[in-house]
Amino acid sequence: MKVKEKEYNKLVRDRIPEIIEYDGCECRYEQLEEDEYRLMLREKFVEEAKELIAAEGKEEIINELADFEELFEAVQDLEQISSDDVEKKKNQKREERGGFTKRIKLISVKEN
Q1: Domain ranges of the chain
Q2: DSSP string over 58-107
Q3: pLDDT exceeds cutoff 80 at 31
């Protein structure tokens, strides 16, 4: 019987290899250098955004938001950005451009 191997080549949570091996499977993995880790963290946001779009129901949405928050904290840690710095920028952008509470969808713009 042929052993099936599926390739992922993606960033995963720290305990995933341990969980896979506990389940009786083998996995290959590596610890990333900082530059590749930085890139893969950002790519992971795209993956999680797609999962958030596909999420159905409150629990799935909470699950995806938790993943976003984990990624957000990992980027903050890697880039040495404080939560206070992010909060200040968020407030500045909200003051200058508004938030997303009014549910505005821009349809088009005619340039003069």
Answers
A1: 32-82
A2: HHHHHHHHHHHHHHHHHHHHHHT--HHHHHHHHHHHHHHH--STT-----
A3: yes
* Angle at CA of residue 58, ends 53 and 63, nearest 5°: 70
Angle, to 10 degrees, between the axis of helix 34-54 and the axis of helix 58-79? 160
Residues 6 or more apart whose Cβ sits within 8 Å of residue 43: 10, 11
Amino acid at 98: G
Cβ distance 34 to 68 under 8 Å?
no
| Residue 10 reports pLDDT greater than 80 | yes
The SS3 assignment for 3 reads coil
- Counting DSSP H helices and E strands in the chain, the numbers are 4, 0
Residue 2 banded pLDDT, cuts 50, 70, 90: confident
pLDDT score, position 24: 94
